[in-house]
Amino acid sequence: MLKRNDAPSFASVAREIGEPRLELVLAQLARRVRIDIHNSKFVRKRSEIRSSVKKLKADARRFCRTMERVRTFELPFHDLRNVRRDTRNVIEWCDRSLRVVSDKGGVGKKPGRATCAMIVIEAWAFVRGKTPGANNHTVHAICDEYWLACGCASIGDPRNWRTSMADALKERNGLRLIRDEIRGMEMVFVEPDQGSGQRVD
Q1: Of 49, 142, 157, 163, which alpha carbon lies 20 to 30 A from 7's?
Q2: Nearest to residue 49, comparing CAs of 120, 7, 97?
């Protein structure tokens, strides 16, 4: 394992996983971590969305009550029945939305972390032939080194990666996509005794 005063690189992470040839693969997959962190700036939490919908519903109900004070004959130039109907439709839409939009989910509190863990998990499984568990302290430390290699700050105690690893292991589709990408990049490298070490197409 690296000393804490050493700067992790994709090469050092690949060595820790057990396959130095994964260096380029890890460097290319790092874009997923960066994209995840970047996109988190534009994704609202579902609790915030629910709060906005609740406010819209309250405003629509208040508007509906206000219209009840206006008699139709006082505004002969406009049929308020359509307005009332449309306002009730807005209220019903809010109710439907609140039923289907959970207050949990949306952007995570730690963007990029689960993606980082997924990459390390799949790289480890690719080399070792077995998926590590969420309590694997060796993989915790490798996650933190990969996180640093991606340009992010250390999260401190490597054991803090346990939650992110547990989250990552639940993301079966995400794991499969990364697994396929790692396997697709497998032939980017050649064995040392095969010649120049140039890329194989």
Answers
A1: 163
A2: 97
